[in-house]
Specification:
By secondary structure, the protein is an alpha+beta fold. The protein has 10 helices and 5 strands.
Length: 236
């Protein structure tokens, strides 16, 4: 389970800073959780070919997303979370009005984390191979797609049992996987629309057509060009 570093919150609170990239699926799911939890951050959009020094100072990995939380009691100290899943857990640990963590169940969070880890460590690599096969017209395209489908079948089965991946209510699992299923759906669009995954299409369309997704995918001026922080999120 990702570690969320401890921090002290005092009011008035300095907004955390989120370094983000609009179409990166990891940054996307961090923004989804921030929005769904009702948190607010200062968002700094960037391009990976031109990384700000502030990002590299905060996280040696210099990959998005990175969340920098300032300790108001000690303004010269901050806490950095540089893993997307850890940012999601941080957001819902602050506020979870719609119960995305399903905290009423002792088994829900471990189950969700296990599936997310499987997709992050296994499916993501297969998805990248599939995308490359399409881009470079590789003869292994069908084989690479079928490797991904092994994981999609499990999601389709879940969605035939209830409206969302874990239950009839949205969860951390839905938000964590959605950006990657979106990527898959865009590789061979015509094939996907005819594929035997009607419930997965319904589920994905629900998110893509939502107000939340519109807000999460809003385009901001590149921070290095404007040096202006923009508030992102939905206040309670």
């Amino acid at each position: 389970m990702p570690t969320i570093r401890e921090h002290t919150m005092t009011l008035p609170m300095t907004l955390p800073v989120l370094y983000s990239l609009r179409n990166c699926p990891y940054a996307m799911r961090a923004r989804l959780a921030i929005y769904a939890s009702g948190q607010q951050v200062h968002i700094r959009d960037l391009v990976l070919s031109d990384k700000p020094a502030e990002l590299m100072a905060a996280s040696p990995k210099a990959t998005v997303p990175v969340l920098v939380i300032t300790d108001n009691a000690l303004m010269d100290q901050c806490h950095v979370i540089d893993e997307s899943l850890a940012i999601m857990l941080w957001a819902f640990s602050q506020t979870d009005p719609d119960h995305y963590l399903h905290s009423q169940s002792t088994t829900a969070l471990p189950e969700m984390l296990a599936i997310i880890t499987q997709f992050d460590t296994e499916f993501k690599g297969l998805l990248e191979q599939y995308r490359c096969s399409k881009r470079y017209h590789e003869p292994t395209l069908t084989q690479d797609r079928q490797a991904c489908e092994q994981y999609l079948g499990n999601l389709e089965s879940r969605l035939t049992q209830h409206q969302y991946l874990l239950s009839d209510n949205p969860s951390l699992l839905d938000l964590a996987l959605m950006p990657f299923i979106r990527q898959f759906a865009r590789v061979e669009r015509q094939w996907y629309l005819q594929a035997p995954y009607p419930q997965l299409r319904r589920w994905l369309d629900h998110y893509l057509q939502s107000k939340m997704f519109t807000k999460v995918m809003a385009q901001y001026p590149l921070w290095l060009e404007s040096k202006q922080d923009h508030v992102f999120g939905k206040p309670q």
